[in-house]
């Protein structure tokens, strides 16, 4: 028997029944969407399992997709088999292969940009496309799994093998990146790449979706402190530039991070200057001139900084001048720029999730 023949047989043995493959792929895509979305709010190292799971499950998808495409390829190569749903199937395959390829390339430190987009952003776009296309594709070919498809012990073994392969690949990849010293070696656990240097020019001004306001007039600027405080305030910039300093790490979900020295006013000091918060105070909302906003629990907010300076320089417009939020332990999109209002609230602010996506669209 040839080596190739032996290998082929071993691969065949690993192949689950078609319906099991299909349902597993659906479940895995759902799990990837969930871990991918959750990863956007993980900023501290104790959240590493989210990233580990996302990558390990990705490897399992590669294996199952291999079986699936090998099985259905004749539906494409033989025009007699084309159906109306074939286009949707092709789109699902393209989105899946696109997400896998960009995800793997990103993890290995490939740094190609698609215009202003990092590979990671392209990966997210493919992922969102999958989220729409895969349920539609599944609906056109809906078949419930039968009992006979799930061969108990055999299926369990196949899946254990798949998952172990995913976890091992993850370890091997990390080791390879370090050994070969690729651009993937100095990543944070979030996958973000470092941006070195100090001050405004060291890292890119980044907007989450469409925020792009006119520069804020420093003379007319007032920072409002309102809501559940004893006395509302309206402060000029000078009152914010009080000299509290902190070194903090900003980690953007588009795949870069930077460590900078920020300077400004501690939010806790600001709240004390407003005579303290009322009994009902539970959250602090930071609102941008654009309407963009994010909310932190009061205790966390008190430790945050409203910064006027970075790396010893006055903040540039692109980085949120005159005042931006510095929220250590939070992802970049929560560091609101061009802050003009600090509102102490009696509760959280679920609508902020939508507002950050749509602010800036006129
Ligand atoms: N008002 C407002 N603040 C914002 C954003 C935005 O789009 N609008 N983008 C956020 C995102 S996604 C990141 S990563 C950081 C980037 O900060 P920088 O532009 O100073 O690099 O700002 C955050 N603050
Ligand atoms: Mo970001």
Give a verbal description of the structure.
By secondary structure, the protein is α+β, with helices and mostly antiparallel strands. The chain folds into two domains: about 5-195, Fumarate Reductase Cytochrome B subunit (Up-down Bundle); about 200-360, Oxidoreductase, molybdopterin-binding domain (Sulfite Oxidase, Chain A, domain 2, Alpha-Beta Complex), CATH 3.90.420.10. About 45% of the residues lie in helices and about 15% in strands. It has eleven helices and 13 strands. Strands 3, 6, 7, 10, 11 and 12 form a six-stranded mixed sheet that branches. Helix 2 (about 20-40) packs antiparallel against helix 6 (about 120-140) and helix 5 (about 85-105) runs antiparallel to helix 6 (about 120-140). It starts with a helix and ends with a helix. The structure holds ligand MTE and molybdenum atom (MO). The ligand Nc1nc2c(c(=O)[nH]1)N[C@H]1C(S)=C(S)[C@@H](COP(=O)(O)O)O[C@H]1N2 binds next to loops. The site of molybdenum atom (MO) has 7 residues, from loops.
The main β sheet shows up as: 6 strands, mixed
CATH class of the largest domain: Mainly Alpha
**What is the name of the CATH topology of the largest domain?**
Fumarate Reductase Cytochrome B subunit
The name of the CATH architecture of the largest domain is: Up-down Bundle
Can you list the ligands bound to this structure?
the ligand Nc1nc2c(c(=O)[nH]1)N[C@H]1C(S)=C(S)[C@@H](COP(=O)(O)O)O[C@H]1N2, molybdenum atom
Instruction: Count the E strands.
Output: 13
Question: How would you state the average pLDDT, rounded?
Answer: 91
**How many distinct folded domains?**
2
Shape: elongated
Order of helices and strands: HHHHHEEHHEEEHEEHEEHEEEEH
Poorly predicted tracts of residues: none
Number of helices: 11
Secondary-structure-derived class: alpha+beta
Radius of gyration: 25 Å
């Amino acid at each position: 028997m040839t080596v190739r023949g032996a290998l082929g047989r071993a691969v065949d043995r690993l192949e689950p029944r078609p319906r099991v493959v299909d349902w597993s792929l659906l479940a895995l895509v759902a799990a990837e969407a969930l871990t991918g979305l959750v990863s956007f709010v993980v900023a501290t190292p104790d959240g590493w399992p989210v990233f580990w799971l996302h990558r390990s499950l990705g490897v399992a998808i590669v294996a199952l997709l291999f079986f699936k495409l090998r099985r259905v390829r004749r539906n494409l190569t033989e025009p007699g088999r084309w159906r109306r749903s074939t286009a949707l199937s092709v789109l699902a395959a393209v989105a899946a292969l696109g997400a896998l390829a960009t995800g793997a390339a990103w993890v290995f430190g490939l740094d190609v940009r698609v215009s202003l987009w990092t590979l990671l952003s392209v990966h997210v776009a493919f992922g969102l496309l999958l989220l729409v296309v895969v349920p539609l594709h599944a609906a056109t070919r809906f078949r419930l799994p039968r009992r006979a498809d799930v061969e108990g012990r055999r299926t369990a073994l196949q899946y254990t093998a798949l998952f172990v392969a995913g976890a091992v690949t993850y370890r091997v990849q990390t080791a390879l990146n370090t050994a070969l010293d690729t651009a993937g070696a100095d990543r944070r656990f979030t996958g973000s790449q470092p941006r070195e240097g100090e001050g405004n020019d060291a890292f890119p001004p980044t907007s989450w979706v469409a925020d792009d306001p006119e520069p804020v007039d420093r003379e007319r600027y007032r920072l409002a402190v309102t809501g559940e405080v004893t006395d509302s305030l309206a402060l000029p910039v000078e009152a914010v530039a009080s000299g509290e300093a902190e070194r903090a790490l900003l980690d953007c979900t588009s795949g870069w991070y930077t460590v900078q020295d920020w300077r400004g006013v501690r939010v806790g000091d600001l709240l004390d200057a407003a005579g303290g918060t009322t009994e009902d105070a539970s959250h602090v909302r930071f609102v941008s001139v654009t309407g963009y906003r994010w909310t932190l629990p009061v205790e966390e907010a008190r430790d945050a900084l409203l910064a006027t300076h970075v790396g010893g320089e006055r903040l540039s417009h692109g980085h949120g001048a005159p005042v931006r939020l510095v929220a250590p332990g939070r992802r970049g999109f929560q560091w609101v720029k061009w802050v003009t209002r600090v509102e102490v609230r009696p509760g959280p602010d679920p609508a902020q999730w939508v507002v950050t996506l749509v602010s800036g669209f006129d």
